[in-house]
């Protein structure tokens, strides 16, 4: 049984249809990348999977159970969420924010146990920010704050993590660190990741690490294609999806290891 099954799913806002008759599933230990231009509906689809928005048609099964039958808060035991951006209104410490990932188990107003604290500590260590644990979250840079969101999701200890453009604010090194953390998680713990991203090369990175990776190209209210990165991230598809001319190149990263990369050349007017 797949961890997540999306069946004939449709959603629209009052004046705009976003997607219709979407079908896909996500397996345990798989990375599922969602690619598509601004406004095509990636965040909306993620919101439907998180139970934040209700489908207009079709259904979503989480661990075989219809998402509509989950009690409030129960989804948080299966899916953790790393948002695109996070309002930083209150000066909670970094450690407090990460401990909030444990709320699915402790209840929102109960004190975290010793185990919860240890899990939060381990999550912060994994993203390399343990040294910032006492800092107010409001004082972090955009990139540091994003990594804290990743740590909070890790602390939630769910079989699936949904990430909405997790590297959006990150510098060159931190971007790679998030990708490495994902590789570690999927490889060691068999966590499943659904990730909306604007970077087709991220999926090549995961494929190069030999992780089960699939990419869905969101276009025209459905998927233009769904498959392995090397099958789907093709120059012709990038023209249709983004209106951009690209070249696919490949560079050696070691003996018998090649990393494919998509290079943008020009926009199509
Ligand atoms: N609450 C809302 N009410 C009405 N329309 C909305 C709402 N939220 C988003 N939209 C519209 O739905 C469309 C899809 O938005 P969504 O945020 O899902 O796209 P996206 O693919 O995640 O975009 P981006 O890559 O820019 O983050 C957009 O046209 C957006 O303006």
Automatic annotation (TrEMBL):
Pfam families: ABC_tran
GO molecular function: ATP binding; ATP hydrolysis activity
UniProt xrefs under Gene3D superfamilies: P-loop containing nucleotide triphosphate hydrolases
InterPro entries (UniProt xref): AAA+_ATPase, ABC_transporter-like_ATP-bd, ABC_transporter-like_CS, Metal_Ion_Import_ABC, P-loop_NTPase
Alphabetical list of SUPFAM superfamilies matching this protein: P-loop containing nucleoside triphosphate hydrolases
Sequence ranges assigned to domain ABC transporter in this UniProt record: 4-245
Protein name listed in UniProt: Iron(III) ABC transporter, ATP-binding protein
Organism: Syntrophomonas wolfei subsp. wolfei (strain DSM 2245B / Goettingen)
